[in-house]
Amino acid sequence: MAVPVNAGNASAFIPPPQVYIAPSQGYLEKLAFGVANNQPVLLIGETGVGKTQSVRYLAWKTNNGLRRVNLNGATTVDEFLGKMLINEQGTYWVDGVLVSAMQAGDWILLDEINACLPEIAFCLHSLLDDDRMVVLMEYDGRIVRPHPDFRLFASMNPSEEGRYSGTKTLNEALLDRFPIVIRMDYLSEDEEVQAVTAQSGNRDEDVVRRMVRAANDIRAAIRNEKIFGSFSTRRVIDWARMALSFPVREAARYAVVSKQSAYDAETVQDIVDNYFEA
Amino acid sequence: MAVPVNAGNASAFIPPPQVYIAPSQGYLEKLAFGVANNQPVLLIGETGVGKTQSVRYLAWKTNNGLRRVNLNGATTVDEFLGKMLINEQGTYWVDGVLVSAMQAGDWILLDEINACLPEIAFCLHSLLDDDRMVVLMEYDGRIVRPHPDFRLFASMNPSEEGRYSGTKTLNEALLDRFPIVIRMDYLSEDEEVQAVTAQSGNRDEDVVRRMVRAANDIRAAIRNEKIFGSFSTRRVIDWARMALSFPVREAARYAVVSKQSAYDAETVQDIVDNYFEA
Amino acid sequence: MAVPVNAGNASAFIPPPQVYIAPSQGYLEKLAFGVANNQPVLLIGETGVGKTQSVRYLAWKTNNGLRRVNLNGATTVDEFLGKMLINEQGTYWVDGVLVSAMQAGDWILLDEINACLPEIAFCLHSLLDDDRMVVLMEYDGRIVRPHPDFRLFASMNPSEEGRYSGTKTLNEALLDRFPIVIRMDYLSEDEEVQAVTAQSGNRDEDVVRRMVRAANDIRAAIRNEKIFGSFSTRRVIDWARMALSFPVREAARYAVVSKQSAYDAETVQDIVDNYFEA
Amino acid sequence: MAVPVNAGNASAFIPPPQVYIAPSQGYLEKLAFGVANNQPVLLIGETGVGKTQSVRYLAWKTNNGLRRVNLNGATTVDEFLGKMLINEQGTYWVDGVLVSAMQAGDWILLDEINACLPEIAFCLHSLLDDDRMVVLMEYDGRIVRPHPDFRLFASMNPSEEGRYSGTKTLNEALLDRFPIVIRMDYLSEDEEVQAVTAQSGNRDEDVVRRMVRAANDIRAAIRNEKIFGSFSTRRVIDWARMALSFPVREAARYAVVSKQSAYDAETVQDIVDNYFEA
Amino acid sequence: MAVPVNAGNASAFIPPPQVYIAPSQGYLEKLAFGVANNQPVLLIGETGVGKTQSVRYLAWKTNNGLRRVNLNGATTVDEFLGKMLINEQGTYWVDGVLVSAMQAGDWILLDEINACLPEIAFCLHSLLDDDRMVVLMEYDGRIVRPHPDFRLFASMNPSEEGRYSGTKTLNEALLDRFPIVIRMDYLSEDEEVQAVTAQSGNRDEDVVRRMVRAANDIRAAIRNEKIFGSFSTRRVIDWARMALSFPVREAARYAVVSKQSAYDAETVQDIVDNYFEA
Amino acid sequence: MAVPVNAGNASAFIPPPQVYIAPSQGYLEKLAFGVANNQPVLLIGETGVGKTQSVRYLAWKTNNGLRRVNLNGATTVDEFLGKMLINEQGTYWVDGVLVSAMQAGDWILLDEINACLPEIAFCLHSLLDDDRMVVLMEYDGRIVRPHPDFRLFASMNPSEEGRYSGTKTLNEALLDRFPIVIRMDYLSEDEEVQAVTAQSGNRDEDVVRRMVRAANDIRAAIRNEKIFGSFSTRRVIDWARMALSFPVREAARYAVVSKQSAYDAETVQDIVDNYFEA
User: Fold this and answer.
1) Which pLDDT score is estimated for E161?
2) Cα(F80)–Cα(F72) distance, rounded to whole angstroms?
3) Touch between A and D (at least 3 CB pairs under 8 Å)
4) What is the pLDDT of residues D247-256, one digit of tens each?
């Protein structure tokens, strides 16, 4: 499922070179299928599981600009589509982030799409429908159609998934506009050891592997609702990097344990103690 | 109930050519009756049942422009009727989507009409009443009357229908202004097989028919409240199209199962397994 | 109680000629008394009972302009009294619908007056009080007094009438400003048959009479809380008109039954079946 | 307690001549004491008991302008103190109703003072305090002190008086700024007969007296919580006036009974029947 | 703890000469300590206990301007710090009440500080912190430091003091910025008799003393939650003044009893009866 | 972990010289590590524990400007990133506090970060992510990258820490962007005696030590939920300073006891009595 490199592209939004350990589960392949077939892709997964990173990596590899916008309920249609401003010649129109990306041919990644305002959802309907257009009703009613390089991705968090939540928290009509939905999980132990080493600069593989195992124990404790929160690969990287300057247990105190509430800190400390004796 | 083709019409809102498998239940005939007699029509049905598509198809067939607006509570009278803007000559008026369509003689489809703001409902009253006009109180009090080609459609979702909901969620006074109300249902199996084949490009009729049967089983599970959500024809099309590039069960994972919450995914997977063995 | 015709009046708001079957209960006579004595009249009745129509008819008969405004809580004092706009000479005042009608000598009908904002209620107090004036505090504090032809009507719905609702939902202080309050009911059977025939063009009196009887049975079911909603004369007219093009039972499906929720549809279908066998 | 006539005063807000039957309870005397000593007076009483009328009458008698403003929570500081507007020379200040009255030397009556916004309450504190001034912070910080003829009155409704309501619903700090608080009650029977006759033009004293007795029975029913609402002298006047054109029982239907909810109408009809047999 | 008189000061906000009976509890001494050491002082006490008066008196004695602002949740940062206005040269800055007082060297008294908006609390933090400055982020980011004569006082009401209220209703971080907190109580009987006589002009000491005793009995009833409200010295003064023109019991009716709800009026009347027989 | 002095820096936001008793727990060392490695640091601790002071001290020592902003939910993106203003040339952009600090190379301390609005959290994501930039969507979409001297700190209060609060009240995604999280506690007794003496000017070590012990007893009472609130070092300093002018117990009344609610005051008074007999 080859995605061609967008050779001549000079967008200011092309990501810097990335170190990325692609997970073995074929997520990238499905992302690439969406890009190749010009179909929007929705990514669902925990904080820090690598949703943004996978899209950013693919954008870098294919030389496409990537813009991000968070639709957490505070983003208005003004910011999304555009709005009128005023100067001495009167009012003029300024494109919002979606219209700007649509016209520049950049990719766009919509974070927390399940929390978007209904009027933003409706903009997306007509963009992702057979209509494939956006009408600037706030401006002069003009019709905007996407540049051929434009692609749309969305991501959301399943963390409040209870009996009646999950994908359902995304409006069914909007969910229906995403032909491809990828549910992402954490890296495998080996993949994560490799990623942490590469990104923290900490080359002590034994230490890093013990850190990853501690991370996985903490994740299990979260899954079993013994403690609250999430535990990203990024947090392991911070720990590993801090352990280059401080003893590994002291580094754990400031990079891992202190990020838990007083109630959960003890459990986390026990897990750390298990891998790194006092 | 012939609707004449609007031959000379050059509206930018005429839909592109459509592939549409008209359902056998006579919905189109009633839509056409409304158009011919200049009476507004209200369509009630589940997400993805084809409400928008039927109006879009008729607009295309008769060469009429079609505009859509979602009245989900976030659409203000400003966007609907128009508003004052300011430039160096002072303020000036910009028509909203309704007034613009009324004057251009385009058709308009109002989505989620049951959620419209009361002041929008009131605009609609005087447009759909014997008065057949809209007064631009926000502007200079001028009276706008519709172009002879203007037609109005509305749609809404019955999905929260409980003992005291249903049509009732639409204000009685507004409901009263729609002489014709059509309740739409899913396509029959044969109709849906035909529609999925035509729109996905997947010509393996046996596979597509099994997909449609799985879809109908999932719909039954939703109706019986075993799982939550809805299941549109569009979702079957996505699955069929993805199955051209991936094995049918892997395609199901990304196009069907991942769109359910973790709780419901198992039920849906079982139904898929039933038609496509592992 | 003769109301003189306003012979020379050329208001753009004079209603078009009306077909109106005046109910036999003397409502028109009391309306005329209010007009003749320059006293505001409040009309209370179900949706579709003919509140607006009776005022519109009287306005047409006497050649007076009639403006309507809905006070459903979304109408602001800006729209009601007027507001400042800005152009290159600075700000200027634009009259709202009440002030505009007061000065033009048109009649005004305030819909859903029981839902009006408190500041609008207060404007009405000083207009309907001994003061008989409105002060434009938002402008320059000027005092507006009504043109001699100006008349004020209000209407509201008793439909949520429970033990503690009814007229009470209208603020007592405002209710007190209406010397005349008319509670309107549906037309009698004969009156309604006559009205439906005249307005639908369906001259089959036997069919129309059966439709009216079905309507009255449905109204009884609503009154007895077996089903929910309301059933206006307008709905019978739609049915009668549709029955000119479709079989009467098929017309009932789209003009009557589909306007009920799934729960109530069966009851309504039974009533229809009673008058029009399958 | 003589209040001098403000002989040379030409305010546009001087009320027109009033017919006013002063109640025998000495309210006017206390009002006059407040005016003479330049102390604000608060009037508490039911809707229609004559609070506004007593102040209006005194203003007319003494040739003082009277302005009214309702502080029901929708009146902003902008309307009360003033606000900046914009024209081609930039912004300029427009006085609000309080500042305008303070400077013109008119009286002001604040309705529903118990519902005023806290920032309006605070304006009143510094006006009614030893400071006796208002600071226009929204403008340029200038200090406004009242014209010697300026007087301030306030009124409120005790109707929601329960165990913990009553005067208490007025902020204690604001209540403290009114040295004189008058609790007003309905007129006595003789006073009311006289007032109704004078204001309705209905000179049949026997009929009017029976109407007043019916009104007092209805008021008793309200006090005993058998029915809901209030019953002003104004309502008796409307009835008496309508009875000049219609039979007294038919007049009762449109002027009295129809103002009650369906639940209470029967009780009220019984009382009417008691005085005017069918 | 001598506070020097600010001899040359000509602020328009210097209070007029005051009659003030300083309470014997040393409050003034602590206020003076705060002024002398340039430390903010917080006053806590019931409505009418004399919080404002004590600061106003000290300002008058020392010839300092005093400005007041109520922070009851409706005061915005705009009014407090300043805001941009617009004229023909574009926008310009207008100082708010705090910045204006800081620069003029006036004192400022913040009423109801426990109800201030969080962003106002934050302004106060950086003013009262070691930073001793305010940054005008809304303007151009400039830093304002206080004039040497500037002093800050705050007051609040403990009246809702329950188990978890009291000082706690003031944010701990803000409370921490007030080195001195004074809890004020009512005057002693002799002090209050002296104050009432001086301020009402009623020189009948026996009558005034009985009024003060009645006031203290009412206060006890409030403290014991037999009745609701508060009872300020001001209210006794109003009564004493009205008793110069009306019999003392009639004066009590309009100045004391009518300020209580119907439920509490009887208790208050009994206390009055106790000191002034019918 | 040496942090170089920013020798040539002339920022107006460099703090004045500070007296600071560095706690012995190595907090400063971790702060310095964050500064040296350009990693954001989050400080968690009670009001008055010294979070702000530690950053301010480090800024002063290294000659860096420090700006603070409180993100308590009232700070908008406008104030944080910037906004459009208008003058006679039309609209122009004014940088907000974050962008201003980012470009000037000042440090910024974000107070109450756990209460920040979601759209501010999102700004911080892209600043603290691999992107290390902020996009000014409200302006012209330009990209701002931080000056090399720019550093970011955040602080928050754990005071509502219950079973499910604590760090969790900070959004996990944002918490994840802080590699270093420091939980700060009160000073030790000796450290606090030293700090109070240095900052209050009260050199009576015996008295100060007893004050500190009383403070620690009060803190214990708070921790055990016997009383409510917090007790900062600042409060001990105020007491010690006031005790230079008043007897130590009278000073306690105004600097310590009066800051507690009526309910808690007794407990606090007992603790004071324990160290300073009556």
Assistant:
1) 47
2) 12
3) no
4) 999 999 999 9
Q: List, in order, residues 6 or more apart from C47 with CB less than 8 Å away.
A: B172, B173, B176, C157, C159, C230, C232
Q: What chain B residue is nearest to A138 in terms of C-alpha separation?
A: B79
**CA triple C204-C205-C208, angle to 5 deg:** 90
For residues E152-161, give the mean pLDDT.
Answer: 78
3-state secondary structure labels for all residues of chain D:
CCCCCCCCCCCCCCCCCCCCCCCCCCHHHHHHHHHHCCCCEEEECCCCCCHHHHHHHHHHHCCCCEEEEECCCCCCHHHHHEEEEEECCEEEEEECHHHHHHHHCCEEEEECHHHCCHHHHHHHHHHHCCCCCEEECCCCCEEECCCCCCEEEEEECCCCCCCCCHHHHCCHHHHCCCCEEEECCCCCHHHHHHHHHHHHCCCCHHHHHHHHHHHHHHHHHHHCCCCCCCCCHHHHHHHHHHCCCCCHHHHHHHHCHHHCCHHHHHHHHHHHHHHCCC
Across residues E242-271, what is the average pLDDT? 91
What pLDDT, in 10s, does the model give residues C197-227?
999 999 999 999 999 999 999 999 988 888 8
Q: Is the pLDDT of residue B22 over 80?
A: no
> F91–A86: do the CB atoms touch at under 8 Å?
yes
Which A residues 63-102 touch F at CB under 8 Å? 67-70, 72-75, 79, 85-89, 94-97, 100
pTM of the model: 0.69
Residues 193-232 of E with CB under 8 A from D: 228-230, 232
For residue B254, give the nearest of A1, A30, A131 by CB distance: A30
Burial E240-255 (b: 16+ CB within 10 A, else e): bbbbeebebeebbbbb
- Tell me which residue in F15, F74, F255 faces E119 most closely, judged by beta carbons: F74
Widest CA span of chain B, in angstroms?
71
B162 pLDDT band (50/70/90 cuts)? very low
User: For F120, which residue in chain A has the nearest alpha carbon?
Assistant: A74
Residue F200: both structure tokens together: 């209050």
| Closest to D33 (Cα-Cα) out of E173, E90, E250 | E250
DSSP state of F69: E
Residue to mutate among E78, E137, E178, with most F CBs inside 10 A, is E137
Q: Where is B270: in which H helix or E strand?
A: helix B262-275
Binned at pLDDT 50, 70 and 90, residue B84 comes out as: confident
Tokens 């405002």 locate to C174
Return the residue in E37, E168, E171 with the most chain F beta carbons within 10 A, the one to mutate for interface testing: E168
- Residues B253-257 have a mean pLDDT of 93
CB atoms within 10 A of CB A254: 26
CA-based max dimension of chain E: 71
Shortest alpha-carbon distance between residue D271 and chain C (Å): 19
Q: What is the dihedral of CA A42, A45, A48, A51, to 10 degrees?
A: -20
Q: Report the DSSP pairing between strands B142-144 and B134-136.
A: antiparallel
User: In DSSP terms, which residues pair with B175 in a beta bridge?
Assistant: none
- Closest approach of chain D CAs to the CA of E25, in angstroms? 24
Pairing status of strand F107-111 against strand E90-95: unpaired
pLDDT mean over F35-57: 90
Per-residue model confidence (pLDDT) at position B123: 82
Enumerate residues 14 to 53 of chain F having a beta carbon within 8 A of any beta carbon in chain E: 15-16, 18, 47-48
Average pLDDT over residues C88-102: 82
Closest Cβ–Cβ partner in D90, D137, D176 for E234: D176
Distance, in Å, from the CA atom of E180 to the CA atom of E43, rounded to the nearest integer, reads: 9
| Chain E partners (3+ C-beta pairs within 8 A) | D, F
Higher pLDDT, F17 or F66: F66
Separation CA C115–CA B50 (nearest Å): 37
